[in-house]
Amino acid sequence: PGPDEPERIDAIKRLYDAFGLRIFSIQTGSGGAFDPDPEVRKRWVGEFEKQARFARSAGAECIGTWPGGGLRGQTIDAAIGHLIASFQEVGRIAESLGLLAAFEIEPPFVFNTEDHLRRILEGVNHPHFKTIYDPSHFDLMNGSTGNPHEMLARIGVENIGYVHFTDTDGTLREGETSKHLPCGEGHVDVEASLRTLAGGGFEGWIMMDEWQVPDPYEACRAGADCIRRFLG
Predict the structure, then answer these.
(1) From CA 86, how far away is CA 34, in angstroms rounded?
(2) pTM over 0.90
(3) Are 77 and 173 in the same domain?
(4) In angstroms, rounded to a whole number, what is the distance separating the alpha carbons of residues 169 and 187?
(5) What is the DSSP letter of 181?
(6) pLDDT in tens, 101-139
(7) What is the CATH number of the domain that holds 85?
């Protein structure tokens, strides 16, 4: 629903309430945020603001965004510059609504390295704009070593908005994005990730991310069990 449709928003909230759940975040695309055409970028910011208003009305605390899509004739440096400018507006919008915005880059994206991630974060430099820690993506950007917490430490826990909790074997799933696996079925040092987050003072949301996992319910259970064991 749109942000100005309170009856439809309330219906969604009632559905979640019936299961004892809540909406902590919504996912949005941000391909238009780095389009070479300034009018496209301007329209994207306007659409994002509507999505953010909906998120706030639905009771969310966060809003995620994914800058997928091609370069469309521009250089990677130009695209990063455009993305930073749009994401600065995202930070402003999020702050005005009391939300925390967070972005995620993935191996198939044109933004797909630790350097890209760092440049975007440092360029936006807004307290209401952070990144998402997904061990599967961080692992590939860290050389598929099973130690994504190393990159997490370099990026800084203070720059993490929320977590997409998953394991991985350091490969792509059928040539697409990083392969997500149930906790314990990959090569990630999961405890080291949790220890790094805790040591850095992370107190945000952790979402079980079971993208394309055949049995997502059991994978979510395995992830929750990993966290419970860590917490003791």
Answers:
(1) 7
(2) yes
(3) no
(4) 5
(5) B
(6) 999 999 999 999 999 999 999 999 999 999 999 999 999
(7) 3.20.20.150
